[in-house]
Amino acid sequence: MNRTLLVTGGSRGIGAATALRAAARGWDVAVNYTRDAAAAEAVAAGVRAQGRRALVLQADVADEAQVLAMFAALDAGLGPLTGLVNNAGIVDVAARIDGGSVARWQRMFAVNVIGSMLCAREAVRRMSTRHGGAGGGIVNLSSAAARIGAAGQYVDYAAAKGAIDVFTLGLAREVATEGIRVNAVRPGIIETDIHASGGEPDRAARLAPLVPMQRAGSADEVAAAIVWLLSDESAYTTASVLDVTGGR
Questions:
Q1: Can you give the residue ranges of every domain in the chain?
Q2: Which of 1, 159, 186, 222 could be joined to 142 by an S-S link, Cβ 3.0–4.6 Å?
Q3: Could you tell me if residue 180 is left (phi over 0), alpha (psi between -120 and 50 degrees) or otherwise beta?
Q4: Phi-psi region of 145 (alpha: psi -120 to 50; beta: other; left: phi over 0)
């Protein structure tokens, strides 16, 4: 049976690394993106170069209509879904809560929490044996910020990722007898473009001394954990949250 994986936010960083690593291990991959079509197409080309099928799907995961359209296109283009990586997420410029806005918080939770829940709902509807599916795996992207709190920087982001941790545990137990395993990965300080989108392109290098291993991690190191959690090698692992933080 073909293994088909949807990676949200798959055009860059951890999502792109996950798509390519999964392809190398025999997955067909749907690469979701929001704005950068060229980057998503480049990732898809990398998937195809490894002999796997790829599909590029534009959707803002916070928009239910767009998510439904994305899953319909996935059904038609790659066939039965067997894996989901809820990687799409946003940060914002560093700000204290007393300098924040409701609009910022609503967007933070809409993308980082509701988006993941929407995509998980559609994946469960397709993969659960309760709905006639063949099972599969879901990996949610959390963050070490959920443990640390990100005081003075991204408390709203940390709170959203804390919600992802709890969602992961609850959903895993909800579908544990339906052929679906649900886990999360908590990256620490990782060298990706997300820091630049938060206004701090040098953040990973600046914070590396805070890490016991004294370096930032790479997107591929996080992807390795994600793909392991999707694989049969982790067949007895569900409701787990795996830190990939260099010890932080």
A1: 3-244
A2: 186
A3: beta
A4: alpha
**185: number of Cβ within 10 Å:** 26
The single-letter code of the amino acid at 115 is G
CATH architecture of 3-244: 3-Layer(aba) Sandwich (3.40)
CA atoms within 13 A on the CB side of 6: 34
Q: Where are the alpha helices (DSSP H) in the chain?
A: 13-24, 37-49, 64-78, 102-109, 115-127, 145-148, 155-174, 194-197, 203-207, 219-230
33: annotated active-site residue: no
Section 174-189 average pLDDT: 98
Please say if the pLDDT value at position 5 is more than 80: yes
pTM, full prediction:
0.95
At 241, give phi and psi (nearest 5°): -120, 110
Residue 191 burial class via C-beta count within 10 angstroms: exposed 0-12, middle 13-18, buried 19 and up: middle
C-alpha closest to that of 15 among 196, 140, 160, 145: 140
Rounded CA gap, 17 and 190, in Å?
Answer: 12
| pLDDT tens digits, one per residue of 53-79 | 999 999 999 999 999 999 999 999 998
